Amino acid sequence: MTGTVTVDADPGSFAQMIGGLIDANLRADPAKARVLTRTTGRVALDITDRMEAVELHVDGIGITVSHAGRQTEAAELRIVGTADAIMGLSTVPLRFGLPDLLSSSGRRVTGRWASGGLEIHGLPQGTALLRVVLGVISVVA
Q1: 37-64: buried (b, 16+ CB within 10 Å) or exposed (e) per residue?
Q2: pTM of the complete model
Q3: For the stretch 91-101, what's the b/e string if a residue is b when 16 or more beta carbons lie within 10 angstroms of its beta carbon?
């Protein structure tokens, strides 16, 4: 199964980067597309140091990446942080689809989350969407 990645025509720099990362990950490991079938919904990435927001729309077979301006209230899950913090999620090993607390990078991202350097709004209802996003942006084998 291969998932589809669609990036809007005028995506903005961060949306283009996230879309490219997801597309490259799905091409490198088509099995990652299975996570796209687990749920549907909208995820907002609010990048605080760029005053930019990206929306990921998971539809069960693919993912659409769009520039969201600053309008992210409609998303079921919101991840808020600096570009570095959000991109750092792509390098964290996962266990059961969430950051692996047995790894140093998993503890580091969880510590950043606990200290407020990374905010995730919409949990626990958005846990399945969080697993999807982490699964498709992860570059860790």
Answers
A1: eebebbbbbbbbeeebbbbbebeeebbb
A2: 0.89
A3: ebebeebebbe
